[in-house]
From TrEMBL:
Protein name according to UniProt: Uncharacterized protein
ATP-binding keyword on record: yes
Composition-biased stretches (Low complexity): 41-53
Positions of region (Disordered): 24-55
InterPro entries: ATPase_NBD (IPR043129), Heat_shock_70_CS (IPR018181), Hsp_70_fam (IPR013126)
Domain of life (superkingdom): Eukaryota
One MF term in the entry's GO annotations: ATP-dependent protein folding chaperone
Keyword Nucleotide-binding: yes
Key words, A-Z: ATP-binding, Nucleotide-binding
Amino acid sequence: MSPSLGLSYGGSWHLQRSARQARCSTRSGLPIRPCTRRGESSPSTSATPTPASRGQTQTMFQLCIPSWVAFADDGAVLVGEDARNHAAVNPQAAVSGFKRLLGKRLTRVLEREFGQRVKENLSYKIDVDKDVWPHIQVTTSDGEVRLLGVEKLTAMVVAKLKETAEAYLGHRVEAAIFTLPLEFSDEASRGAAFFTGRLAGFEAMRVLSEPTAAANAHGVDERLRDEGSVVVLHVGGGTAEASVLTLVDGAYEALGLEHDPFFGGQDFDRRITDHFVGLVRSKHGKDIGGDGAALDKLRTACERAKKTLSHQDHARVTVESLVDGVDLAEPLTRAEFEELNHDLFLKVVELVDKVVSQARDYYMDSKLVIDEVVLIGGSTMIPKLRELVRDYFGGTKELSTRIKPDEVVTIGAVEYSKWIYSKRRSALLARRELS
């Protein structure tokens, strides 16, 4: 039986493969059904490998690459870090953030508001007239203009993961589990995920919702009372989502959902960057607000400092030759970072409050009890953000953080992979017995 990989699609694509899966030993696992709103099917797009036991990854292979695609002047397609670096050379030939458009039809009345936000927040031009589905315009240095579908761009990233995994393992990998945010719960998004898998050379075995995958990675179903509830909060690099899930007859269903496709860790980075742009102006007399190259270097340094402050009280923002011979080397404390982003952190809490209110409305009264809170995404590792979420629930709810938030969805898809292989193996043995 061909082994599969786990792919989690966020601001970056994550790929994991466990040692146990590589040995192709017999697998047992938990049936993880796709999370659904009542009466609806709900997709998600992620593919992951199977760890030896729940919560223990024992990973022999793991890869994470940014969701960037670029086109060099010689016609070469660049993916991941290479593509992001090329953006500094020719920003019109590099794109990112296209996950938000997967399966979307911006000409539909229900998606016009989203379409307007796309125009306001994404720097590249989007053509909505070609084949109904949105196509992204890229322009190389020689002036060549290309229109590329979102599925094709996404498949380029997935194919890069597939190629890297096969080179490492020494054999073909043909199957994957995909995960998508719960917001992508329509058949168009689900179909786009399967189509992306086929373009990349994968059999997309299943499409899961990220909240379901994360909850099952933590084994929430083993502790949750019947019809108990869990809040799943996802704050990634560029998107944020909060949902309330309930467990009914062993399956997760969604009681509420709040999704912001243009809010996340990049907003925190921007606040720090703006702070240091002002500092450079006042201290060195240089205005780098219109200098794209300098801003990119500063933004990268600020993001690095932000991550450091998740586990340290102090960090330094260091950029050599920022502009006109100016070397930047300035301290940034966790307290300063929290002050700069306080209102944005409260925006995350507001997301949680809205989704909890939706869940209470479902019950038509206030009997809703939240049993657990699961965190997804690298931005949820920020200590102040965790503190505010914990305080929202009166300090009585421990946040499920045993598994790293930026890996938990991938591991949840791995668990589902185990179950699929177990079912297929059981079916194969049953057929052999009958014959």
